[in-house]
């Protein structure tokens, strides 16, 4: 049966781009943090027109399509599971369109392009797609999870930078939603539904993004607030006084700091004389003004002096690359220490530190060997509440851990998925933690677009009766 | 039959807030630009709980509910039409919630609050909801049309400032969508559907907005580019060099300028020695930095000197109130000259001036007595392509005019509704100008949420067969 499907698919996108299950290269099946998946076949279409034929074809054969961009996601939404029924739909060859409009500062681009390549091509024009991540996702993947990243505080999430989408629906209709305009309210905003839908509802073929001017200067400081209690008031004053210049404000707990240092993140002695604070902040200012008009480094220095007074040594200024290298070595550093269990949560800023304290206390009581090494996007309330389960410790009851952490998140009015989206990894938590009315209407909406459940691995509805 | 409905409604929201058709005060039925409407009754609920009972009640009685906020919209979406069947649902008493969180910079607020009151209450905290309009709409109305306004360039539209919504559906379910978090991707983004839905799909009861810091200084200039062709290049350099400080960039054509001057917009002689340019730009910079750190007035002055050289008299700097008064007198000035026919369109910036030239030429040929007096939000591509049909001219064929303008908008890849939304006023144009697939899926979506067509006056689907 699958053979008939493969033959027909090959007629649509060429034999070289239709691969039977056993012959799929491992990179398509091996996600970043989890066990490998399985698929009946791999398709690599090159155009919207091919997508429009492949989607109904898969439906007629009773197969489920799993769209996959760069396979950098962290919720297993792009890793097929079922060797008999799942067909992997790789979007990497969707590269039909790359249309830059420098006056409008917009980019119309096919779903298969990746973030780094886009920004390389935009740099000569002084423009950028202002999403900043350690990973290098595709356009489609970023849209599917509404990615945030370290500069969301200034530039917003992917949704805030998306002006239009082209999607292909399960039955093959092509919907062109929105235009490449900065504004326009001449239709229901259907495009918004597909942003953050984790590859369900439809396959994103193309997007039009709003671009930002690359900054002409930046200033970075790593600061050590006098205590955890001092962090949020410091952040509030920063935003009140320099807010529109702040392009990132990242939080780093001491264990995360230690882990990064132990793993290539730089020399300990250069940071605060080697006395690491319980919680550090990485602050970045950016501007398109040249330093002659506004000297960011001097401005940040004056602000730090006013804030820290005699303790100004508790701030390290002017080490942009070193600060960011430290930040970007955290994940690797944690992996070197044991099994990492990651929680990508968001909190109201007013509860951020209280949640952290409660989580720490709860872990100490219930999961004693665990080491909390949180870090993340403090400025927008995002927290990677990550912990290390040391090598050699007894087996971890991950389900109980997860339930406990999410109960705390709920108590502090947070979100159990800040920017990684929902996929099989969070499917059960999603059902447990969401209100019945939301599940009900989300399920109805999904069935409207995909009545036979042919797209993606996420089920937005309530559990089947 | 309506009597039974009124009795039951009075039990829900109190007799004083249920009014039979003939007794409705004129302000509820008289929209800004159009003929008065008619309604079978007026309801003024005070809470989400009352809404949840009223919506299904109206459905059981076969009535259609027309939500109305401050009744400032320009597409007749809030003016009921049918004296037998339409029930006006005024949201002005929905004032249950006004919860400011200064650390998170969020405001949870009921739909009945109006923009001016919100910003008055936020000002002492140095915060604002950064939507800037001549009108004073309600929270619900702004959301229903995804309002833009003069500072959208800097702060985005209403959607960009909305974190969460509470909506009541036709059958009475209350959906709480999103949280007051800066980020969160733990559900399908259903709330996005209701923003810009013109009062259909559901009734918005409450919203949580992201707030902005009020600026500590502003600098405003009115400038006269040497020609229409010079306008967009000037804008591009402005954004390239000072972009993140620009909070408004408005365009004013000479006829619009003349009209404003004739109607209280200020003295002619103070502007460019009385020699009005064919097209003027109003530029505003804002910052939360104090002038000691960055002097916006000096910065703008230097930029104008570099741009205009010896012709620097073609820029009027430091007359903030006068510049904005001029801008805000345009609409009134046009009304004094004759019948105003307004088109709220948006263009890609690259086609903005070409569209304007083509529109002007077409009007001169086909509608000779018409005077084009366009103005608007040049920075975000928004153009109020407004024309005056002089008093005493022969009757205007408005349908032919509208069709011709929209054909041009389409030729230049624009939107026929930039920020006023769709309502009965644009219903026919919406059907004519939208792609069949978009109409089809929008109609399906509307029927999902409102199967019996009980909510609002906009039909998002294709014409009935």
Automatic annotation (TrEMBL), chains A, B:
Keywords, in A-Z order: FAD, Flavoprotein, Oxidoreductase
Show the Pfam families listed in the entry.
FAD-oxidase_C, FAD_binding_4
Asked if the record carries the keyword Flavoprotein, the reply is: yes
Q: Which InterPro entries match?
A: FAD-bd_oxidored_4_C, FAD-bd_PCMH, FAD-bd_PCMH-like_sf, FAD-bd_PCMH_sub1, FAD-bd_PCMH_sub2, FAD-linked_Oxase-like_C, FAD-oxidored/transferase_4, Oxid_FAD_bind_N
Top-level lineage group: Bacteria
Q: Which PANTHER family match?
A: D-2-HYDROXYGLUTARATE DEHYDROGENASE, MITOCHONDRIAL
Tell me the cofactors it needs: FAD
Descriptive protein name: FAD-binding oxidoreductase
- Domain named FAD-binding PCMH-type is located at 34-214
Alphabetized SUPFAM superfamilies for the sequence: FAD-binding/transporter-associated domain-like, FAD-linked oxidases, C-terminal domain
Q: Which GO terms describe its biological process?
A: respiratory electron transport chain
